[in-house]
Model the fold of this input.
Amino acid sequence: EAQVTQNPRYLITVTGKKLTVTCSQNMNHEYMSWYRQDPGLGLRQIYYSMNVEVTDKGDVPEGYKVSRKEKRNFPLILESPSPNQTSLYFCASSLSNPTYEQYFGPGTRLTVT
Amino acid sequence: DQQVKQNSPSLSVQEGRISILNCDYTNSMFDYFLWYKKYPAEGPTFLISISSIKDKNEDGRFTVFLNKSAKHLSLHIVPSQPGDSAVYFCAASAIASNDYKLSFGAGTTVTVRA
Done:
């Protein structure tokens, strides 16, 4: 089954404790992206990747890091989480660029206290 | 400052009637537009898209209209069905400028009444 998986689905952590949210797709897609969803702000893109070893900033990259060492995986790293990073995070992938249909993961609910 | 704006946070429509969702954008470089639909506790799913070389695209009950001079697009759902109750996001990209970011609006929550 074609899908995008994210782990963990729920995470409660404390300020400053480094964490990684994993994302994996099994569709051989080149384009992968991370978004956060916040009330009243909709979805905002954090980082995207056009292919292996190619990553670029979205609209809200501050406080986040990503890597794309393999085509299927695109982890999101929060080196020193802060309460303003409490949000619902989605990973997505598409064939080659965002004009193609993006397939979204189920989301990761992150709470930073 | 958000470059894609959905100024109506919510819309209530009777089953069988038309739903019209609006989206405005400020970046004149945007040349590709998409609509995504989201149910609670799920990731968004793609609905329909349109390139700036067109002014209309239709897929079944869903039609997207693009007015480039007004920097405005709209999504029409006809007829509306209870399963259409969801949050709808408008998104835009500036592909011809080699800008592969995707900017989303804040979303419009549609409720279809029986």
About this structure: The CA atoms of residues 5 and 89 of chain B lie 10 Å apart. The mean pLDDT of chain B is 96. Chain B has no helices and eleven strands. The interface with chain A takes residues 2, 6, 9, 32, 34, 36, 41-46, 49, 51, 89, 91, 93, 95, 100-107 of chain B (CB under 8 Å).
